[in-house]
């Protein structure tokens, strides 16, 4: 089999790499993996075994020195993204990085700036934006079909057993950048922000429940207010057994929309309805990998299109900063017990 299309290096071969491997196998007519780079020879070899052209190396420089490599899929722990991403950008390779961008907003901003300075396409693995139901809701909102949005809610009622957090680094600020907001709820928060934008003010309580022994928060309850007058509630947790699909609800002057687990239901005041997509498991329970790879496949395919044609990816790294800004404000509100202004020009 000859090498095809876009040439990739995959950096990182841990648990989170499984849906990416399935996606890359499905995209073999469009992309070729030339390198698998990891700290573990065993993990890298296991990942590369199914990819006919993949070379295994423990040295990122080897992959970046190959002029045939067009882009890099970065799947390492969040606290490594800035340094590795800087190397990738300096080599002029396009970058698709797993969420979050990094463990702090200041480090995330630095990586975004480096990528923009080098003129590479840089995107985040925020695959919820690619789901058919989410894209349909975005189209409806852009067209004003729901009218003026006056209230909304975000619910991420997930479950993770203590064994999940017993793995070194999980749920810590040093490795992950936080708890439920940065690691689990970030997908739904990002999707919500992609749909309706950043709020102006937030107030929140973030706690570590008795369900877990961990450094960071496993449960957050908060409220958000928009300049338009719209108010929104947030509840995110990994302490809700056995775990349920995440949900976004929007209420407007013309009707309401509920987006939950990949399914969109719209009910208009004139009596018409819309039902699109289907409810699916998105990793809400004890097994964090219990979900289909198809959305990952879509975000990788979109990244390849963007890099090949020089267009904006569906989840550009700069747009992914908004989730970091919101998470910062929610955690700061809880820490300081006060209302926080969500300031796009702040850093932390």
Automatic annotation (TrEMBL):
Molecular function via GO: nucleotide binding
Domain (GFO/IDH/MocA-like oxidoreductase) ranges: 135-257
InterPro entries on file: Gfo/Idh/MocA-like_OxRdtase_N, Gfo/Idh/MocA_Oxidoreductase, GFO_IDH_MocA-like_dom, NAD(P)-bd_dom_sf
Superkingdom in the source lineage: Bacteria
Pfam families the record matches: GFO_IDH_MocA (PF01408), GFO_IDH_MocA_C3 (PF22725)
Limits of the Gfo/Idh/MocA-like oxidoreductase N-terminal domain: 6-121
Annotated PANTHER family: D-GLUCOSIDE 3-DEHYDROGENASE, UDP-N-ACETYL-2-AMINO-2-DEOXY-D-GLUCURONATE OXIDASE
Protein name (record): Oxidoreductase
Protein's organism: Caballeronia zhejiangensis
